[in-house]
Amino acid sequence: MHISRRSLLKATAIASMASLLRPTLCFAAQNNTSGSISVRKLTPATGGEAIETLIFTPDGATSNFMPLTTTENTPVQWTLRNETAAPISVRLQGIRATLNVDGKRVDGALATIAPNATTTLEFTPPDAGTYYAAIASEKLTGTVPIIVNGASPKFEHDLTISINDQTGSTPALQYFVNNSQLLAPTFSQGALVRVRLLNTTRNSLMPFVFAGGLLRIIAFDGHAIEPYEPYNGRVTLSPGQRADVAVFIPQSQMQSFKIDTMLGATPYPLFTAQIQQSLREKIAFHEKLVALPPAKVPDRYPLEDSVKVDWKIDEAPAKSPLFSAKRGQTIVLTLNNPRDKPVITLFEGHCMRPLDLLDDGIKPYVRDAVVLKPKLNNKYAFVANLEGTWAVRTFNVTDGMLLGEMKFAVV
């Protein structure tokens, strides 16, 4: 189904905030390793057509889409029951780990749960960071954020905001805010807040606009970067991308902290917290902010003995891998986008460093979700460090439908 920005703006009857459904404010779910998936119809109180949506309900909880929370290098056993009448796929995005399904190793990061069946997923995330599981049936989609904790600076609050598009009889965006406080949160002056942003939509570019705090982006797609200040208080994410933002609440006259998203020129509120005056000693942001532990991926790749691969991004999925590489070998991947529009690309099991198109210089960050520029060869480098068969998938920016799929084997 095509979900355009224009159609989102037309869905004013879905909720009191136009095409955004009302947020679900819920408590953090520690060690949330089981749950069920069902279809539920959401009927807005203001009238309008009900939307069918996939709902993930953790055992013993009532809130939807509460994140799975774990710790780096800790084995996870995640048991899911499909209570719908159709098969459901579960795809792990960004986690650099092999996947076992019901005790058996599978290729890639994709599992299928049969109708009215229970399946156990097992994986061990090696990296602390912000990831997610994309849950989909033939017509419906949903998202479960996966929060992997590790050694990190002390944050007084840890906030997760995830936006995904719901496909049903009426197009809409759904989002949730996870916060370990009450429904009327308060941040004290001098507090350091971690905000995890996830854009898990199929084809929507999502801006997040901050007001009331000092910002530094500290991680992209689950991996630490050198902290920097986003321009004009805005963080824009393409589909599949995540960003961790450190927010310092200064001692000033500001009374509230806000995060909005934008549809066209119209802001839509996602989260608001009142700012409470504090008697604590005044401290500067740079004194309190400490960078996250460095990413566990290489800073440099030996390109001399690398495997060099070119792939046209709209080629139909092939049953056999396009190429194979030895574990630990560097791959230089050139993705050719012949189209006149950008293309969404998601990598499985590995994260990539973009290469400069002119001199192959390595960019100082890693991504597992990118947007390929039109009419260009887009180049990436990564180390093949997980044995098995993995996939690179491309999606149409217009409707989010699958364009192409390339598989590669690591031996």
Number of helices: 2
State the secondary-structure class.
Answer: mainly beta
Got a strand count?
32
- The oligomeric state is single chain
Strand content: over 45%
Name the average pLDDT.
80
User: Can you give the helix content as a percent range?
Assistant: under 10%
The coarse overall form would be globular
Give a quick account of the main beta sheet: strands, pairing sense, barrel closure. 7 strands, mixed
Which stretches are low in confidence, meaning pLDDT under 50 for 5 or more residues running? 1-31, 60-64
Sheet with the most strands: spatial strand order: 1-14-13-16-21-18-19
Based on CA atoms alone, the radius of gyration comes out at 21 Å
Distance between the termini: 38 Å
Condensed summary:
The protein is an all-beta fold. The chain has helices at residues 5-10, 285-288, and strands at 25-26, 34-42, 51-58, 68-71, 76-82, 88-93, 99-101, 104-106, 110-113, 117-123, 129-136, 141-149, 157-166, 172-178, 186-188, 192-199, 206-211, 214-220, 223-228, 234-237, 242-248, 256-263, 266-276, 307-312, 323-325, 330-337, 343-347, 353-354, 369-372, 376-383, 388-396, 402-410. The strands form six sheets. A seven-stranded mixed beta sheet has the order 1-14-13-16-21-18-19, with no helix packed on it. Strands 3-2-5-10-7-8 form a six-stranded mixed beta sheet, with no helix packed on it. It has a five-stranded mixed beta sheet with strand order 4-12-11-6-9, with no helix packed on it.
